[in-house]
Design brief:
With 355 residues, the chain is α/β, with parallel strands linked by helices. It has two domains: 150 residues, Rossmann fold (3-Layer(aba) Sandwich), CATH 3.40.50.2000; 176 residues, 3-Layer(aba) Sandwich (Rossmann fold), CATH 3.40.50. The chain has twelve helices and eleven strands. The longest helix has 14 residues. The relative contact order is 0.12.
Length: 355
């Protein structure tokens, strides 16, 4: 019979890529403290490359629009996961579908702990009247608390960045990196899931046009409209390169490991770069660093925010999907010059990553 100590911990986190990416520093710290403890991680199929670095982690990709659709799908997923002979469940999402799974595991006497999202404090931070403007606990620490309640204390102080991936000269990633002629590389992810978090494209073009004079610019994006805009910039400027079209997620991660700075909205690419130990300059719109989703291990001065003296309702929501009346042009108050100067300062002060 399998001993309890040998049984794996089941972890699940679905949602957007950025939310999933924020589990990585926690898992690294977990495995540093418990190198022999196996984890089965359930997430969206597309997120698998994020977890390839972990030897003792089994990734299970699921999609809820086909094989695990509806209540019957949840039951089917539960039966599949139950066969893994797990000893406990770490729910790092805490939404309706994970609550259904949690209920099913609990009635089989499996210990379950869910992330406390601090919803009450979130409401106080984003409400317009009587707003309590103070920083919330970063989500990574909330993830750590889930493991602590399962009997596995995790300390992010123990976090270590992995060695950069070795790229053969014949890989497409290395060919791109080698074409930069020893220039420093700035990644720019100019898009976000909501308009309230996206810096105006005409202003971002000013940033790109200036920085590409001295640096190689790698552009990251995803949606069809985003790819069309990236293609325009790629063709317009000599030192601007479209990374999203020609490279899959695993390849993009390989490339991000070798850039010198990522300029990002409050979006996934900022978290991907932070996980690689790359400095991230984050531009915040209707959200704010106080919401608890700042890229991991980044200095507070690496965030550019809208002046709350002009727009006191910010943050207007946790996800940036609410733009109050009179706030549609708020991001225009962040001048391209401010982004450029901050980027240059970060590059000047950045410590090289020697691995």
């Amino acid at each position: 019979m399998t001993q309890q100590k040998d049984k794996p911990i089941l972890v699940y986190r679905f949602s957007a890529l950025g939310d999933i990416a924020m589990t990585i520093p926690v898992l690294r710290s977990f495995f540093k403290s418990y190198p022999n403890q196996k984890i089965i991680l359930v997430s969206r199929n597309y997120a698998k490359p994020l977890f390839d670095e972990f030897d003792n982690l089994e990734f299970v990709g699921v999609e809820f629009n086909n094989q695990y659709k509806g209540i019957q799908g949840f039951v089917k997923l539960f039966k599949f996961l139950r066969k893994k002979n797990i000893k406990s469940v770490a729910d790092l999402h805490n939404v309706l579908r994970t609550k259904v799974l949690n209920f099913l595991f609990r009635i089989t006497l499996i210990k379950v702990q869910s992330v406390n999202k601090g919803r009450s404090d979130r409401k106080k931070l984003i409400r317009r009247k009587n707003k309590i403007f103070k920083p919330l606990t970063p989500i990574q620490y909330r993830y750590c608390d889930v493991f602590r309640r399962l009997g596995f204390p995790v300390d992010l102080v123990n976090h270590e960045y992995p060695v950069k991936p070795f790229l053969d000269n014949d890989t497409e990633e290395q060919k791109l990196l080698s074409s930069c002629q020893n220039k420093k590389i700035i990644g720019i992810a100019p898009f976000a899931s909501f308009q309230g978090k996206s810096y105006p494209l005409d202003l971002m073009q000013n940033v790109i046009a200036y920085l590409q004079k001295s640096y190689s610019i790698y552009l990251f994006g995803g949606g069809e409209n985003e790819l069309n805009q990236i293609k325009i910039w790629d063709r317009a400027y000599e030192n601007v390169f479209d990374v999203s079209k020609n490279f899959n997620l695993r390849q993009q991660l390989n490339i991000i490991n070798y850039i010198d700075l990522m300029i990002s909205m409050d979006s996934a690419n900022g978290h991907l770069a932070a996980n690689c130990g790359v400095p991230v300059l984050t531009i915040w719109g209707m959200t704010h660093p106080f919401c608890g989703f700042t890229p991991f291990d980044q200095a507070p001065e690496n965030s550019i925010v809208i002046d709350r003296n002009l727009y006191p309702a910010i943050p207007t929501s946790i996800f940036g999907n609410k733009v109050p009346k009179g706030y549609s042009s708020a991001l225009r108050t962040i001048e391209p010059k401010e982004i450029i100067e901050k980027a240059l300062k970060i590059l000047e002060n950045a410590k090289p990553r020697h691995n």
